[in-house]
Each structure stands twice: as structure tokens, then as C-alpha cells.
Design goal:
Oligopep_ABC_C; Rossmann fold; eight-stranded mixed sheet; alpha/beta; 15 helices; nucleotide-binding; three-stranded antiparallel sheet; single chain; Peptide/nickel transport system ATP-binding protein; 448 residues
């Protein structure tokens, strides 16, 4: 492999799960777990794939290594003796894992291995750990059991265990020790690439540090390339060279770790970084709150998929509101559209300490505002008038009118425009419409 040739190229990878209904089992939609991600890993490099639970990062891992078949896209693996291959006449690539037959796939899995999140569930409790690790050697043709044992015993020592542990069983080991055994199993075939899916998330913090240090040492010793998947930006910072930030099936930012942490460009990246604990007890500044949960991949938001939770969601040029109030308005609009406002419950809560006669529509509207963290009065007169009209409809149990009022008035370019990547230099790219010239001009005008 040439120095300029990545060991792994992922091009527009997709994994969609069909949704079928009815007696005829017709396909009526799809859950887009992975929806067109692209990145590459260079020889000896560690690339992180980070995001919350439900963002699709683990599905990306299993699709890359072909534990499940991707829906579309390419996974070009240039490890082993595959380097320097050119595309076929029909445009396909001979090193595309998604097109490998059984023989090619078996060879690929000798050269690319995976470490799983829960080491306990990946071992057979009735099989000694030595046999579990050596099983891979037997599957790939090594019949000499004495040689297999010697290789495994050596690996157990390299990962910080003892050769005598070969004959012990999984229940005799701690979580950190099991993950070390998982590392040994991943290394036993001497692969070029390892995909590690949340390898330390189930471990105590002190054990996490030990395992991360071990992974780093083994990477140097064996010359490995690594795809490291995690939800923790702190872990990513400690071990990765580059990082791709993933949200709802898409990569929203990618770049070198140092640059991305110094100058994050996507609001989602900012919010993930804000969750890293600050060890300085004197710093009492509040981080950015990541509200809500990841939307369903079966019905993702339009435009930028993150706009429903974004603290920097772009404001319509018709209004002049504080950013926090604007975000709260859009969150409230979403809840109203799914009838997520329980007026009866709000009325019952309002009765605490009040008589029935005191519960006027004005009181109920005030309680709704409190329930959804809306200001008692919006600073923009027209916005306040629209919100008050919508609240009247909600109190009257007319959610259809309230939804129409809010959705027709409180709109954002973020739900109308699908963001494209902006290049910030040195491979640092992000997908956010705030980097578009017209949006930047609009925000500057609003600040004046």
C-alpha cells in the first residue's frame, strides 16, 4: 500500500431497514440507520466515529465489516496485498467489501477484526478463553493445536494477562480483563484494521484508562489502523487522530481531533464537547444542554436533521428574538404538532393551591408557558401575538388550528435547506447552513 492510499475508504455508505405492513407485507418506508456516510482511514491511523445512542454509528460498524449487508455505497479495503488496485471497467472496485463473495469475505475477516462493546456477551461461557481466542486460528486453517496455544498464550501476556489464563473461563475474569481477552481475540489473526465498537463504555473510568492505554500500545506494536466508535468525546480526544461526528445516520463534521476540539464548527459537536466533565472545580460555567432525544430514523426531520434540538437553529428574518426563546418556540411547535401538550394535566397541577374559579384561560396559558420553558412574554410583538393565538387554540383543545398557526409562522431555514459540507481547511469539514453566505449575512444583520 502506498503512503497516500487509505487502508479503508467508505463512500456514501447506507443501511436502510425496510418497514413492512399489511397481509401482503408491503414495504411502506425505511428506517435510515446509516444514510450516506463517507470517510477514510490511513495506515496506522485511529479515526473516531462519535455520536449519541441511536445515531447509527454501531450499524455503520457492522455494515463496514459485513456482519450485515449495506443497502448501498462502497467499503474499499486496501489492506493485505490489495494495495494499488484500480477500478474495473464497469466502475466497480475489486476491493469493495460490499461486493465480496464468501471466499473473499473470509479472507477480509482475517485482515479486519471487530471488538464489541460488551465483552461478556461475546464469549461462550462453556468455552475456556484460550479456546475462544484460538478458535479464529482454527477456522482460518491452522490445524496444529500446540502452535495455536503458543500463539494465544503469547497474546494473553501481551494484553496484560497470564499464559496460565488460557484454561480459565469467562466468569473468572473482571470486565476489564474480559475486554483484554477481546483484544487478544481481535489480534490473533494479525489484522491490518480493527473496528472497536464502544470498547470501554461498560468499564469503570479507572479501567477505561488502562484499556485505552493498552489499545494505544498495541496499535503501535502491531501497526494497526483503528476505527474507534464511542459516544464519549473525552475518550475520542484521548486516543484518536481524526474524528467524524455522526447524527441520525449522517456525518455532520469531520476533522483532526486537535483542530475539531479547538474550533468546532457544527452545533452538535459543540454540544457533545460540552458534555465532557471539567476537572477544574473553580469553573462553574454551565455547558450547552442537549435537549430531547435523537428523532426516529423512520421519520427524520426535514432539512438539517439536527435543527429540532439545535441551540443555534437559524431564526426567521421576520422576528427578532433571543436565541434561547427561538429554540424553545420551535420545540413547543413540535410538541403541539404531535399533541404533546396535556392540558388536563396542566389544569390539575394549576388547581394545587387554587380554587376552580381561579383557573382562567389566562392562568392555563401561563402554566403552559412554564411547562415548556417559554417566556411569560416574547420580546417580539408579532411573535407574541402568534404564540398567544396558538395558546388560545390549545386551551380550546383545537390542536389542528394551533399547529397550523405555529408551523405557518415560526419557520426556520434549517428545516428547508439540506446542509452541504463546508471546507474549513486541512480536511476539517462540517455540514451546517450557518456557513452559507446568505445565512451569515442574515445573522450579522440580526446582531446589528
Amino acid at each position: 500500500m502506498t503512503n497516500s492510499e487509505p487502508i479503508l475508504q467508505v463512500n456514501d455508505l447506507k443501511k436502510h431497514y425496510p418497514i413492512k405492513r399489511g397481509l401482503l407485507n408491503r414495504e411502506v418506508g425505511a428506517a435510515k440507520a446509516v444514510d450516506g456516510i463517507s470517510f477514510e482511514i490511513n495506515p496506522g491511523e485511529t479515526v473516531g466515529l462519535v455520536g449519541e445512542s441511536g445515531c447509527g454509528k454501531s450499524t455503520a460498524a457492522t455494515s463496514i465489516i459485513r456482519l450485515e449487508d449495506p443497502t448501498d455505497g462502497e467499503v474499499i479495503f486496501n489492506g493485505g496485498d490489495r494495495q494499488g488496485a484500480s477500478r474495473n471497467g464497469d466502475g466497480t472496485h475489486p476491493n469493495d467489501v460490499t461486493r465480496f463473495n464468501k471466499r473473499e469475505l473470509k479472507r477480509f475477516r482475517r485482515e479486519a477484526q471487530m471488538i464489541f462493546q460488551d465483552p461478556a456477551s461475546s464469549f461462550n461461557p462453556r468455552m475456556s478463553v484460550g479456546r475462544a481466542v484460538s478458535e479464529m486460528l482454527e477456522i482460518h486453517g491452522m490445524k496444529d493445536k500446540h502452535r495455536r496455544r503458543a500463539i494465544v498464550e503469547d497474546l494473553l501476556e501481551r494484553v496484560g494477562l497470564s499464559a496460565e489464563d488460557y484454561d480459565r473461563y469467562p466468569h473468572e475474569f473482571s470486565g476489564g480483563q474480559k475486554q483484554r481477552i477481546g483484544l487478544a481475540r481481535a489480534l490473533v489473526l494479525n489484522p491490518d484494521l480493527i473496528i472497536a465498537d464502544e470498547p470501554v463504555s461498560a468499564l469503570d473510568v479507572s479501567i477505561q484508562a488502562e484499556v485505552l492505554s493498552l489499545i494505544d500500545d498495541l496499535q503501535d506494536e502491531f501497526g494497526l489502523s483503528l476505527l474507534f466508535i464511542s459516544h464519549d468525546m473525552g475518550v475520542i480526544k484521548s486516543i484518536c487522530d481524526r474524528v467524524a461526528v455522526m447524527y441520525l445516520g449522517e456525518i455532520v463534521e469531520i476533522g483532526e481531533v486537535e483542530e475539531l476540539f479547538r474550533n468546532p464548527q457544527h452545533p452538535y459537536t459543540e454540544e457533545l464537547m460540552s458534555a465532557i466533565p471539567n476537572p477544574d472545580p473553580r469553573d462553574r460555567s454551565e455547558g450547552i444542554s442537549l435537549s430531547g432525544t435523537v428523532p426516529s430514523p423512520t421519520n427524520p426531520p426535514s432539512g438539517c436533521k439536527f435543527h429540532t434540538r439545535c441551540h443555534k437553529v437559524v431564526q426567521s428574518d421576520e422576528f427578532d428574538l433571543e436565541q434561547e426563546a427561538w429554540q424553545q418556540l420551535l420545540t413547543f411547535r413540535q410538541q403541539v404538532s404531535i399533541q404533546g401538550v396535556d392540558v388536563d394535566e396542566i389544569r390539575e397541577n394549576a388547581l394545587l393551591g387554587r380554587s376552580e374559579e381561579e383557573i382562567t384561560d389566562s392562568v392555563l396559558k401561563s402554566e403552559v408557558r412554564k411547562e415548556f420553558d417559554l417566556p411569560s412574554e416574547l420580546s417580539d410583538r408579532e411573535a407574541e401575538k402568534t404564540l398567544d393565538n396558538a395558546l388560545d387554540s390549545i386551551i380550546a383543545d383545537d390542536f389542528e388550528s394551533a399547529t397550523e398557526t405555529l408551523q405557518s409562522t415560526f419557520t426556520t431555514p434549517c428545516e428547508e435547506i439540506e446542509p452541504e459540507f463546508t471546507d474549513h481547511g486541512d480536511g476539517h469539514r462540517s455540514a451546517c447552513i450557518r456557513h452559507r453566505n446568505e445565512i451569515q449575512s442574515m445573522e450579522l444583520a440580526a446582531d446589528d
